[in-house]
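Exercise 3.2. Students should predict the tertiary structure of the chain below and write it as structure tokens, then compare their answer with the key that follows.

Predict this chain's 3D structure.
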Amino acid sequence: MPRSQTRPIAFALLTPTLLSLTLFAMSPHDLLIAGDWLQFRGPSGLGTTTEPGIPTRWDDENNIAWKILLPGAGGSSPIIKSDRIFVTCHSGYGVPGDSAGEIDQLKRHLVCLDRRTGEILWTTETPAAQPEQARIREGHGYASSTPAIDGDRVYTFYGRSGVFAFDLHGEQRWQADVGSGTHGWGSAASPILFQDSVIVNASVESASLVSLDKTSGKEKWRVGGIRQSWNTPILVRLPDKTTELVVAIQGKVLGFNPATGEQLWSCATDIGSYMVPSLVAHDGIVYCIGGRTNGSLAVRAGGRGDVTETHRQWTGRKGSNVSSPIYHDRHLYWANDNLGIVYCAEASTGQVLYEERIERAEQIYAAPVLADGKLYYVSRRGQTFVVAAKPEFELVAKNEFGRGAGVFNASPAVVDGAMFLRSDNFLFCIKGK
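Answer key:
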């Protein structure tokens, strides 16, 4: 039966109402408070949170607060502001398991849900700009970019259809084109916010980084040469309190002034393939993994020109082609996308301290999260491997949903003692009783 495109209903509500948390004013570079997960990979885009009490064990019957059928498919991650969840999906064409539909019926949905109950509060539909590409590999679909949110606007990136701003009631405020290119792997990089700007990696659409005014959508700057890049840029705070915008492309890591688009530095990666994993940074050091050749490196930000000889700290041969890394307590952690192996490396040297194969792990595309001293790695089949965040390998738990849960490409969001996990069919709220 084709996926219903009417308003979905909650399947279960097993725990008490989640508490709403007060929002505080903050610098965009500071860690976000508990209660907010405002962009891809949450606080500062690094996939980490200090939230305590996240369950380590669950299944279809236990520690599932609610489960919602979404009105379309997608690989974008949920974002959360106070008691609202926002996620994107697509319908009308290219929905896995649904052979119906014509490409001219393709549309994207921005969906707003109640964080406490999972009730869908509103859905805004946006028709796809045509001609759209007719096929995307591995069923990744047309809604892989995670939204970003500030005080009163939600920003979405729909590939060649452009960047959109919506208010918190779902009303469109503006749309901006960033290019019309397409690719067999689709479009996936997510927007980030800096001061009064929305910044998008439009590598697929125009081989560009593009900065747009948050209020009007007008283009502020654009830089080219961003090729073979699917990662979401990060903002790196330097010891002198300045901020750099950093992104990986084929063969290089690049640093920019986020206010003007001026390229500040470049560093060779010795990785010859396209770059999907997002970067992480700590104390001005940027850590990069990626490429089909599975490389890794660290580079100190803040340089000028080609800094390969002066600022590159180390390179390694282990990495991942899809899933992003985590920095924690002087160590890097990541999972290989195809081998079912998780790694821990010393951040100062790149020395691998462990590489352990996880039992029966399927492909891992989702970026992991770090919560309550544990790493959560989610496989495409919906297995979640909980690993202690320490340099000695310890598998704490393995969790798995039953058949029919869908394909899991999205990264989890963590708020108020709950984990929100999205498949191409459902959104789950995982919370202890």
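Discussion points: The helical segments are 203-206, 308-311. The two ends are 34 Å apart (CA to CA).
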